[in-house]
Amino acid sequence: MIAVIPVRDGVAPAGADETICEASGHALIIGSGTSQALENLANVARNVWLAEAEVGASQIITAITQIGRLNETIILPATPDGRDLAPHLAHALGRSLFAGAISITDNKVSVSLHGGLAIADYSPLAPFIATLQIGIRGVDTVSAVPTISRVENLPTANAAHVSVISVAVMPPDASTMDLSEAPRIIGGGAGLESGERFVQLQNVAAALDASMGVTRVITDRGWADHERQIGTTGVIVDPDLYIAFGISGAVQHTSGLGQPEHIISVNTDAHCPMMQMADLAIVADANAVLEQLAQLMHVESQVGAA
Fold it and tell me: Which run of H or E residues covers position 195?
């Protein structure tokens, strides 16, 4: 089994370290700035192949063929690039695809279904393609220095021979980007009083170039989509900054937070878990603080409008 890690400008995607660990330390790192990306992944890798090339299915297949591992299972992190590349690889190689796996071996794949409410186990009889969910497996560090090789002379994309080519990679929109990769998240919980407050929260988040996240109770009420839910039954995140409005900090939520560099919490309960975790704890009504913040930032609000 081999992990394929697509990198851009020397930045490895979220979950790259976990994916390499799942493949027992064997990885193809492909893209731009692969040597720089490896600096943050060397402690989990055993055998690494670096390929400075365009990130595409044909380049990946050629690289894996050159290193003699085409007959093995290929796994990728379930990032936007990973989720995009996996079906192309599966189609090109004629293999089964298991998306959103939480555990992968050569003969067993466990896939999370229905928002984490069920797990399906599969027993593939041949090599396959899979994407590994981020933030679930954890990492196993390796003390030895990894063996590093380079893969050269990979093909470039040719519009006459491929059905899809990448024209450009646009910077992410914080309001719609994959929550697992968001560097700044503003979260809302049961302390916010209505669905209108979450529209306001989304607008404030956009003004701060941040993404909106919520707790499970909010998605259960239908005030936000499940893709915005942070926690064990939602998305596992690891932002630099997390601002929590009206979130008490139940373990189902906080276990999905990763290790934020900075946490700010606004809550009337000074002793709730989220306030204890915070670097800055503001004892106040989250609705009032959000309203004031929206006014200061000149964010439009429909809360209380007739």
Answer: helix 195-207
Residue bearing tokens 């704890």: 281
Q: Please compute the mean of the pLDDT values over residues 247-252 and round it to a whole number.
A: 94
Of the candidates 70, 1, 67, 59, the one whose C-alpha atom is nearest the C-alpha of residue 30 is 59
Domains in the chain, CATH or no CATH each:
2-150 (3.40.50.620), 179-296 (3.40.50.1220)
Per-residue CA distances from 208 to 173, 243, 298, 300 (Å): 12, 11, 12, 14
Ramachandran angles phi, psi of 186, nearest 5°: -110, 115
Distance between CA 168 and CA 165 in Å, rounded?
A: 9
Contacts of residue 269, defined as CB under 8 A and 6 or more positions apart, other chains included, come to: 248, 275
Give burial (CB, 10 Å; 0-12/13-18/19+) of 124. Answer: middle
pLDDT level of residue 159 (50, 70, 90 thresholds): very low
| Amino acid at position 162, single letter | V
Distant-in-sequence, close-in-space partners of 305: CB < 8 Å, separation ≥ 6? none
Structure tokens at 232: 């064990």
Residue 300, pLDDT above cutoff 90: no
* Amino acid code (one letter) for 249: G
Indicate the residue type of 292. Q
Q: Give kind and range of the element (H or E) at residue 206.
A: helix 195-207
Tell me the C-alpha distance between 51 and 151, whole Å.
5
Confidence of residue 134 (pLDDT cuts 50, 70, 90): confident
Contact 135, 256 (CB under 8 A): yes
Report the percentage of the chain scoring pLDDT > 90.
Answer: 67
